[in-house]
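Dear all,

This email documents one entry for the complex benchmark we are building for the journal club exercise. For each entry we list the sequence lines for every component of the assembly. Then comes the predicted three-dimensional structure of the complex as a token string, followed by one or two observations. Please use this as the template for your own entries, and keep the labels exactly as they appear.
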Amino acid sequence: MQKELRELYQQVILDHNKSPRNFRKIENPTVSLEGHNPLCGDNVTIYIQLDDNELIKDISFQGSGCAISKASASLMTSMIKGKSVDEAKVLFEKFHHLVTAKIDENIDLEELGKLAVFSGVREFPARVKCASLAWHTMIKALEGKKEKVSTEEE
Amino acid sequence: MLLKEENAELKKQLDFNVEKVRSDFPILSQLVHGKPLVYLDNAATTQKPLHVLHSLENYYYKQNANIHRGVHALSQEATEAFESSRIKVKKFINALGKNEIIFTKGTTESINLVAQTYCRKVLNEGDDIIISEMEHHSNIVPWQLICEEKKANLKVIPINETGEIILEEFEKLISEKTKLVSVVYASNSLGTVNPVKEIIKLAHSFNVPVLLDAAQAVNHLELDVQQLDCDFLAFSGHKLYGPTGIGILYGKINLLENMPPYQGGGDMISRVTFQKTTYNELPHKFEAGTPNIAGAIGLGAAIDYVSNVGLDRIARYENSLLEYATNKISTLNGLRVIGTSKNKISVLSFVLDNVHPHDVGTFLDFEGIAIRTGHHCTQPVMDKFKIPATSRASFGMYNTFEEVDVLYNGLKKILEVFN
């Protein structure tokens, strides 16, 4: 496999694609929101259960999409579970920067932890939206958006 | 892989010199990600042979001028070249007259033209337009727009599990309320070639005209509008090895004559005063403004090229490619072909277990293989088969059996990585 391809489809991504974590529906979630990428037909629904202290007690997803979008949603849910809403927002910013940064920009991968597996995405402009869909949907859900989210809104 | 001798024998039978054809398409001899380009996205657009490229170059180098009404030499030459392309199209689809050939931007505009002129005039509240479940969005949305405006109904002929129109359902749908039937001749996402003669015959028994979307049919099937007896036919130049931005609407003369103009502007008038404008005769009535002159000339050159190679020969060759590819990739565990009609053009849609089409597309790209992934602008077809998308390999006259092997090996590798 070529270098760029290997970096895009890292083993962790292939693994999360094959057995996605938190791939289920939460009954009576605090918030839930559907996200859609009209360009490729990917869709994801994020379910979030918050406790009284604004902690993300449980988070899950369902939907269909490519390996990148599925693994991204899976990793996101496993990273965010147990975090506060503010911490989730910080992670979102880090992730967003990682996949949209210029190719020649140096990024501190160590600081990114598990997120670093998405470092190959920025080499593939067509796939950035695949990686971001779940994250954008999660943030909009936390912001209290009720209508379906689309990657073509911004 | 085919044995060398077997391959040679097959090529002889097919009477098709693919190496010669490939040498006419310079774009094919390049590397993509370090691998020889395998272009299998011909249903999206075809590559252009040198003959077409030279015609465009020649026009801009030596003939460029605006057409019609020019008294100077270049204008006359450009007009001559433009109008001779119309005659080439007329001959290519065996229309009765060149006045039945209207230049448009492409299939989409051709269909919109009929929706906005013919249907605007004949459609009333409660009337029906019939399409099929396998239509491209461009043969759905224009009808939805006019139906909404006129409070008419859009009825849809369902398809079966192999991706074929269910004719009995069409018989149930058509009635005296039907004002137009618009169906695709060959499907871009399933490859199905529809029984358009039967559809036309039945529609005509109700005095209902039929539009054929021939976007995918035009480079595989012989289009004889008189034999088909279709009332309208639409196709694009760029799927016939010609330039983008040029297309054709064929219409029977009596229908076109009674249709109001599409757009207003220059060239579509015979006399303009502020009180009243009289429209130009056909086909100019539907060609407002300076047209895509180079595109029309390029389309004419593409028709010459295709006719020279021989459409029947091309079709035979592509069918054998399709058969070889279908048999070969079907042996892969976890691959399912979508669109299994017996009568197909060389479009091969498939899904892989546990691998999304977009991942297939990215992986194959790194093998130098260009395929299309997604819903192919036929979301209702995806809904019907309960899949979000497919991967689609579509073959043109320059593809080879060896390229099918490259595709097969690429798919095999993907299945190994993902499973």
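Observations: Chain B has two domains: 4-48+310-418, 52-308. The first strand of chain B starts at residue 31 and ends at 32.
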